[in-house]
Amino acid sequence: MNFFNTIRNYSTRYLSGSRARPIVFAPLPPKRDGEHVMSFLQNKLLAKYDPTGQRRKLAETLRAGDMIKVTYGDKSTAFGRIIAIKRGHNNVGHNILMRNKIGGLGVEVRVPLFNPTIKNIEVMHKPEKYLSRRKHFYIRNTKHDVGNIEDFLTRERIAKNQSN
Amino acid sequence: MIYLKTLLNVIDNSGAQVVECIKVLRHSPKNFAKIGDEITVVVKEAKPLSASITGQSANNRVKRRDICRAVVVRTKAPLRRPDGSTVRFDDNACVLINKNGDPLGTRVSSVVAKELRDLKYSKIATLAPKTF
Q: Any idea which UniProt keywords this protein has (chain A) (predicted)?
């Protein structure tokens, strides 16, 4: 708005003199109802990739230490324990870093949360007591390291069935 | 990121256990090998030859100081997939191959990256117990 004020000041100064009056235009109406261009675009992308808001809600409940199962459109699945969640500020930049062990070898995958090829993200297990810190990079190759998540989940399911 | 002097685990039954990269093939000199890239390696550690091994695997057995070709199947450096996800493994590993791209061994012992299936190394991907 400062810009228009300066123009107006100029015009009054010109008026006081004997020179010709400059042309002053009315300010243009603000684009997108005054919304900032980045937030406008990000909201548009979020509406496109997460129309129901379900993924955004899920991201709020997830925490490093949870075990999740990611199902893709081609029905392939990936299990893992979350070791970090990168959160964007109201944008599609969220991603989840999860770790698993397959045959004793650690494998990590960083999954973009709003990836359209992902069909479902399911929370399989939440620990009673979480490790400290938001990001668990320090668990790699220590006693806190993850085991085979699939084996763990099957064992847990069997134990639950037996107790019932 | 596999380049000159990188040590890799060998996950097939060719007899080699640890190899050292001596050349990244078909890349500009400053570049490095990723999953699915071919490299030339020298065998640093190998399982001792024993009389009990017979058949095809005995013919393709490699010894220490042998020079062969290999394809990278796992890297510690994250590999970016077209959908924006990245994959990283806890070690650098390769499978020894001949000049036609066929594996020297008859077995692959642990997990390999999914990318090999779409390249000309689909045989390695099918031999592996699991792809990730």
A: Ribonucleoprotein, Ribosomal protein
